Amino acid sequence: MQSLAKVDEYINEQLKQQLRAAFEVRNEIVTKLADYVKLKDVLKALKDTGMTGKPLKMQVDIGDNFYVHAKVPDWSTVFVDIGYGFLLELTPEETLKFAAKKIELLESRVSQESKNIARLKARIKILTFGLGQKHGMNLDLLADSNSPRQMI
């Protein structure tokens, strides 16, 4: 009985906490990914409309979805936040190349985190199923009771 309590504690204290942390990490990566996609889309739209070299009027998010009007007299260079408080001055063309590589990197990180989340969910499901079997509960993982049992 003590071993069952330890397994239950392991599920709730370790695995579920790891799962929450993995979701938070993935959500942060997805947010960064969305920012780079938005940057790439804006620069492509400006380039396609022939706005190169012309002053811009835009709204800038200064935090918590609070926007202010801004005038950009010269956008021949763009400052890109590359992390750790560093800004990189790039041309729009360089920014597009940088954004494309960053998007690719972030997409692979989202995929890795999604796999990690799936592994944690599977471990939780397997251990929970094992606890149910140990307690003598009849847990059907599959909706069709006539089909052979499979572990998901």
From TrEMBL:
Gene3D superfamilies: 1.10.287.370. InterPro entries: Prefoldin, Prefoldin_subunit_alpha. It comes from the Eukaryota. Keywords: Coiled coil. Residues 96-123 form a coiled coil. Transmembrane segments: none annotated. One of its GO terms (biological process) is positive regulation of transcription by RNA polymerase II. One of its GO terms (cellular component) is mediator complex. This is Uncharacterized protein. One of its GO terms (molecular function) is transcription corepressor activity. It comes from Artemia franciscana (Brine shrimp). Pfam families: Prefoldin.
